[in-house]
Write a structure and sequence with these properties.
mainly beta; 15-stranded mixed sheet; two-stranded antiparallel ribbon
Length: 284
């Protein structure tokens, strides 16, 4: 596993890892799932919330630019294949997302594998496309993109034969398409793509749920559903525990500190900005 790709050269962004480590098999022996639960005030806590609450946002696939990069997609001046491309990774506008943040990590936390966001959602339409973005909010005030995942909510059914808790697999069969029930919260699983990342001690892990788009340099979603704006609510309670689940690998020796920002290849970095979630009724 090559960690911190872009941090190991003589200048930030060169295609060299900061450090590496090997294992005999994958999934890595001893990998365990760690859950953080969505809580009041945009927090991600270690335990399910004692009370009931919900957050709400206006879903809008055009709330941000479709991509986080414009310009030469090759290696020319300011190009995408240069050491530090001029990414334009923008924050979600107020009211257009729901964002949750852990407390500062007490130790380095190494995540290798997929994971998922489990969310109890209610939508004003029978279908809605969702994007979950995982990022590291660093103690130096910077935020680094790590990974993302997507779900079309009416295709939320998982393939039971292929799925594991740490790697859910969507069925995507026509027979399993099912509209969201009206005026009721429903549990959905947003599978995350693989990551191999060390969240440093003192950093916080952030998950942002919004409409698709805005986090990739050269591709976007041209056929999001629905066509307009809708209201999406996310419940957070003991009965409806929305959470982030990541595969954590213990015992990884981390010989380096925070990588340069910008510097990691394919991982834009920006100044961290707090986000205030809207509220919604927790029942339904």
């Amino acid at each position: 596993m090559l960690f911190d790709n872009g941090a190991g050269g003589t200048q930030p962004g060169q295609p060299q890892p900061g450090f590496e480590q090997s294992w005999p098999s994958f999934p890595i022996p001893g990998t365990s799932g760690r859950s953080w639960y969505m809580a009041p005030g945009g927090a991600l806590g270690d335990a399910k919330p004692a009370g009931a609450g919900a957050d709400s946002f206006t879903w809008n696939a055009h709330a941000r630019p479709l991509t986080d990069f414009t310009g030469d997609t090759a290696g020319g001046s300011g190009g995408l294949w240069t050491a530090t491309p001029p990414y334009q990774w923008t924050q979600p506008p107020p009211g257009s997302a729901a964002s949750y943040l852990t407390s500062p990590l007490s130790s380095n936390t190494t995540v290798i594998g997929a994971g998922a966001v489990h969310a109890w959602i209610r939508s004003s339409t029978p279908n809605v496309d969702l994007q979950a973005t995982i990022s590291e909010v660093r103690p130096d005030g910077k935020e680094t993109f790590v990974q993302g995942g997507w779900l079309r909510a009416d295709e939320r059914k998982l393939d039971a034969a292929k799925s594991t808790p740490l790697e859910p697999v969507l069925s995507l069969r026509a027979a399993d398409v099912s509209p969201l029930p009206a005026n009721r919260y429903t549990e959905v699983t947003i599978p995350l793509y693989y990551e191999g990342h060390v969240y440093r001690a003192g950093s916080r892990i952030r998950v942002t749920i919004a409409a698709p788009n805005g986090d990739q340099p050269i591709w976007s979603f041209g056929e999001t559903d629905p066509a307009g704006t809708v209201t999406v609510s996310i419940a957070r309670s003991g009965q409806m525990p929305s959470s982030l689940l990541l595969p954590v690998v213990a015992g990884v020796s981390v010989p380096t500190g925070l990588p340069p920002c910008p510097g990691l290849r394919g991982e834009p970095c920006r100044d961290y900005q707090p986000f205030v979630n809207g509220t919604a009724a927790p029942n339904g």
